[in-house]
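Sequence in, structure out. Go.
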Amino acid sequence: MTKVRKKTSKQVTLRKKYSVAGKVREHHRKIKKEAKGLAKHGFKPKFSKKNPGIPNLFPEKEAMLNAMQRKQNMDAAQMENTKLMKAGLKHLPHGDLATYALEAQGKIVTYEED
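Output:
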């Protein structure tokens, strides 16, 4: 017959608990100090914001997701256009900058109406 062992407890001693908390505090302090030093030289850390998502019970979830996707695609296309414009690789449609600006303004207005 095999021996049955008792399950080990997950209880942590207070000494261990407070030492871990202290190490975490020191680590956070170190990260802040490094970020402060980098900020002096013009580097700012980029923290990504978490997207909470859309609840499944939201009545117009699909429409909202489609609108978000359209906006993301439009933003990506706009970024690409500005990159190309800055690089001088793209010729302006319809000849000059004024007509191109009017056309872009019309596209912005149509997106806001959706």
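Check: The chain has a mean pLDDT of 83. The chain has two domains: 11-45, 61-113.
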